[in-house]
Amino acid sequence: MLPRLLILFAVLFGVSVPTQAAAIALIRDGETEALLKDYTYPLLAAAGLNPKQVGLFIVDDPNINAFVTGGQNIFFHTGLILQAETPNTVIGVTAHETGHISAGHIVRGSLARKQSGRAALVATILGFGTMLAGAPQAGIALITGGQQVALRTYLVYNRGQEAGADVVALQLLQATRQSPAGIISVMENFAGQEVLSETSQDPYVRAHPMPRHRVSAYIEGAQKSPYFNAKDDPALQFRHDMVRAKLHGFIDSPTSTFRRYARDKSSPMAQYALAIAYHRSAKLDDAIRLIDSLIEQYPRNPWFHELKGQIYYENGKAQKGIAPYKKAVALRGREPLLLIGLATCQLSLAAQENMDEATQAQLNQEAETILRRALRLDPYNNAAYFQLSKTYGQLGKTAYAQWALAEYYALLGNPAAKRHAKIALQGLEKSSTEYLRASDIIEGE
Q: Where does 11-222 sit in CATH, by number?
């Protein structure tokens, strides 16, 4: 069964910890992240922001919500994605959150005056791609963090800021030729909830107060958009539906998934969700049968190949998982989570006792190359460092293994980082990059 693993946000973010602090569970999944980037990047560019400097994170929470905090970071609840029937709904909410960033509300907000940044945020994320070492049941690549102080950061803006973000959102949607209908549906759904007690309100309302007159003003402005009746691209709608099915498959219980798709088992969305549900129910043959059907229909979809590789790996069949992972990487080579998944599969195979030494060495060396590539794409992915430490351990490169572990713990803010860095220095070449990085860890705060 897929556990709900926690990401714990500490005071190192530079954000005050509220009394009602609660843990936030983050999900990392390449397919979902790619979809959110395609929703968000055009809006960020239209706002004059650098998309690569804005972090996008997925919160495992069934409530409809999205919020901005910790500098330029947007958090999307899975509830928003799952309950949004069209991409435009998520895009509209994203336009509003982008409005807060572009207007500088985060910088001026009382919870965001202190030092914080994306690097510190990403540093707490144990990004395992589609594999989580030591916890193969983690399926969709839920991430765990090592901090012990949890933080829930729902920024409550004043109404002037909300109104300002509304104006910017309409401008951004028009600049990108998209309909404001999606955000209107969200606002209409929650309008009037301010009269409810906080415990009865939806989290989106607590973070985005919406009195009736604000909604009316927004609708009046939105109806003037020449793109009000614009529809989502069918290809984007398909991707949206597939991500929703995937999330249902991994987050809901298998029983709920089987019941949800009982009437329609032939659609691609149903096959995707059911393949995951069968996998989580230890029905390997049924899971592979459905994912193979999807691959036959959509051979160039990297995520279906990824899931097949993941299913084999998590069923102790790493050798069968490597080919699907390689196909996924071939189709989408700049996706670090796919690269980490492939390397994890290779390392598992290389660790088998019956493997000859030459093949073991080849697998470990390939894994090293792949993980280094993943780190160039995602420098703060400490799961890659953890796997890299295993690679060097299996290659007998003890000093490098200790350096990789030092990087891993440093990103978690764990004091064990310095201990591993000191051991690494004893065996690393003084002119090497790894030696310098290990020295920086020791000298750091």
A: 3.30.2010.10
